[in-house]
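Reopening this one. Same input as before:
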Amino acid sequence: MLPGFAFAQSDSFTVRDVKFESQGIMLAGSIVNPEKPFAAVVIVHGSDPVKREMEFARRLADKGIAVLTYDKRGVGESGGVYVGPSVGTNNIDTANLNLLAQDADAAVKTFRTYLKDKKIPIGLVGFSQAGWIIPIVANKDPEIKFMVLFSCPTITTLEQLRFQFYTNGNTNFWENHTQAEALEHIKNDPDKYQFVPTDPKASLNTLSIPGLWLYGEKDIQIPVKLCIEHLNTFKAQGKPFEYVLFSKLGHSTSSRNDTEPFDIAVQWIKQKTLNSKSLK
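Same output, byte for byte:
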């Protein structure tokens, strides 16, 4: 682990660039820290070759949440090799998802050393592909006290591919197809790629930390209604999992264009972290 190599300050938060090691390579990121944070989060990427999410981190910091965001493996200033991005490549095979989970876990451990308040709760916030990664990290690291998942699957990687090939990028898909048709396709469509699927439910089944999923009903990347069915099953078992469905949104639920999901996520984090009983 290396100390921060750059330091900047705004009216409401400071920004410190950091580097840290994960599985033999160096990852580069930034810590965005408000003066008196009530919570801290590490941002977990989606599937694209994404650099650190500075705009999103600043939005969180403005609300009182400290953030560590980093360039994805093989992207920007981070070492290693980025895998992907083509749909169906080993971008979402078990080995790569577990490697990305190890990167996120290293980020959490690094973040803790920089936080002045050692008791501040740390959570994970992620997008899309992070739905497979975050449960793996949270299952292994007791430091993780909560998780917020924007448009994240609760289905297996192979099931997600079946659905994505079915919608084929058609933004009008839901105008011409029913939920029943989509579910039938996901259950029975032959797989175009052969690899061991990752099932987030395996990790979610062992977790007892609060989780919030935010979905757009018009999503054509993941079958939202099926994902919600799984969450309802967990909720019936007493899991502290919640979700919010936005009828007008698609896969993008974290943009500045519609702040409602973001605002709900911030309020949820505040509620969960300020209520210590829910974090035990």
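So the earlier flakiness isn't reproducible anymore. For the record, The radius of gyration is 18 Å.
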